[in-house]
Amino acid sequence: MYSLDTTTTLRLVQITDTHLNGPEDGHLLGMKTLHSMNCVLDIVRSEQPRMDAILVSGDLAQDGSVRAYQHLHQALQPFACPVFWFEGNHDNPDNLQQVAAGTEHLQRVIRTPHWQLILLNSQVIGSVHGHLAADQLQLLEHTLQERPDLHTLVSFHHHPLSMGSRWIDTIGLHNADELLAIVRRHTNVRCVLWGHVHQESDQIIDGVRYLSTPSTCVQFMPGSDDFAIDTLAPGYRWLDLHPDGRVDTGVSRVEDIAFDIDYSVKGY
Q1: Which of 91, 98, 182, 223 is deepest in the core (most CB within 10 A)?
Q2: Where does the Calcineurin-like phosphoesterase domain lie (predicted)?
Q3: Residue 254: which of 2, 11, 35 has the closest Cα?
Q4: Which residues contact 8 (CB under 8 A, 6 or more apart)?
Q5: Are 13 and 54 in contact (CB under 8 A)?
Q6: Among the residues of 10-88, which ranges form H helices?
């Protein structure tokens, strides 16, 4: 468990699906992912003079190499706040853990006087879809029961709700029903946050905010039955978690920069 001393509003920044490679010019669908991530981090610097933590919500690497995780660690080191990572379907957990060793990156429960963040691993090794294993569901249930007085944000990589896109919805969280049953049982869950879908969404269901966030590289076309790339720019999400449980949030995207994308590719 990791403690943050923030007694007022907790300001988080989420970046996701960085898809970094070992080579600095490595790309996804034609877009150089280290360059696009650095462009996003430039706008984070300009827009967020104060942050309490940064979440990096999976698919940190495209090739799973040690060097890719080193790129991420080095790019985020200058920020004066803790940075928390967790796995996506493209990640190599051994290499990720090697680079994160000795840092706060892999802490799973973060607490403040008013909030707790529960960060789960939805990766299924060798598969694109997600699944929360029994130990992850137990961690969620236990942590929620342990501190029912704390407002809670739950985050993992794969989407637990339909995105209205046939191809994306086949590779979401396959046991989302188990997750959502736990969320319904605990009145302290205020927000569920994920990556994976490379697009922005925002829903409120039974008083809980459900959010997805753009990638720092290529975006996927919302509502598409088949794999399709969107023309929107890379971006990030900011969240203000207020002491009374309210959640304010928004998305910012890179502007006035052209990125190379190969729209002919039919998968990632």
Answers
A1: 91
A2: 10-199
A3: 35
A4: 243
A5: yes
A6: 33-47, 66-76
Residue at 156: amino acid letter: F
Q: What is the pLDDT along the chain (268 residues), one digit of tens a residue?
A: 899 988 899 999 999 999 999 998 887 877 899 999 999 999 999 999 999 999 999 999 999 999 999 999 999 999 999 999 999 999 999 999 999 999 999 999 999 999 999 999 999 999 999 999 999 999 999 999 999 999 999 999 999 999 999 999 999 999 999 999 999 999 999 999 999 999 999 999 999 999 999 999 999 989 998 888 888 999 999 999 999 999 999 999 999 877 776 666 666 6
**Residues 6 or more apart from 160 whose CB is under 8 A from it?**
172, 173, 176, 179, 180, 192, 194, 210
Q: Give 190's contacts (C-beta < 8 A, 6+ positions apart).
A: 151, 152, 153, 207, 208, 209, 241, 245, 247
Q: What is the largest CA-CA distance in the chain?
A: 50
Cβ within 8 Å of residue 28, ≥6 positions away: 19, 62, 217, 218, 268
Q: Kindly tell me the burial class for residue 119, based on how many C-beta atoms sit within 10 Å of its own C-beta (0-12, 13-18, 19 or more).
A: buried
Paired strand residues for 27: 32
CA distance 226 to 247: 33
Could you tell me the domains of the chain? 2-253 (3.60.21.10)
Under DSSP, is residue 214 helix (H, G, I), strand (E, B) or coil? coil
Structure token digits, residue 26:
């490595």
Q: Which residue has the tokens 């969280």?
A: 173
Q: Hey, what are 189's tokens?
A: 């869950």
